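Exercise 7. Predict the structure of Prepilin leader peptidase/N-methyltransferase from Vibrio vulnificus.
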Amino acid sequence: MNNNYLEILMQMHESNSWIFYAIVFMFGSAMATFLNVLLYRMPVIMEHDIVENVKYYLKEKKIAHDPIECGADKYNTLMGRSYCTTCGTMIPFYYNIPVLGWLLLRGKSGCCKQPIPIRYFLVEFLFSAFACAAFAMFGFYQALGIVFFSYLAIAISDIDIKTKMIPDEYTYLLLWLGVIFNYNGTYTSLESSVSGVIVAYSFLYVINYLYCCIRNTDGMGGGDFKLLAAIIAWTGLSSTLNVVALSCLFGILTFVFKGLIAKGYKLEKEAEIPFAPALLLAGFTCLVI
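Solution. The predicted structure, encoded as tokens:
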């Protein structure tokens, strides 16, 4: 962005101009629209890639020529058009207008009149409102970072819940954004950010190694190590123990809460819980407090 435009935006932010918050809401809703695309498509893409890799491996080993049929089409998350999930009709661009599109359609698809889940509208509206609230409560760069952090946190958490996998590309993007925002000390010093990445990854690696030695099984996935490192790139070295402690607390509360409300759900010792949401919620808490 041109420096002049950036300065104008910062001045508008300082003066609490309603035009500034209108711009934030519009950009926030546009980001949330793409977030809805990611939340729907990424698990499908990851499933497709896993199946294709298995097919390639089995073919190379001459175990099977075409062992698995994959029904999931590979989406292009950046350029691909949106289609109705019920009848497959391409959705016109004017129905994809953030927030307004769902309202204009009154919650029903324009092609087959099937209900459109309200979560699409809620994600767009609530994320836009959250972005406005962030800029109202924090400085310009702090708020901008919080919006980006939250955006990636929602995407990573949703994917981990659905697939129990964390895409490396999102984790690395989160990490580098943390380092970039702390280049001028937005949340912590650059030294604390970089050293925190190394210490955080090593800390969880050692903990998991010891757990594996005792229980003969991994306590968490390697993606969690990288994710903690990415979070500490934002919050700094001194917050490592706080993030770990809070994430453990959130993870335990989630486990117990799920056991209390889910029908027939048993608190089994070997049950797996996606840890990314707890880690990211802990990171967000340390970032804003």
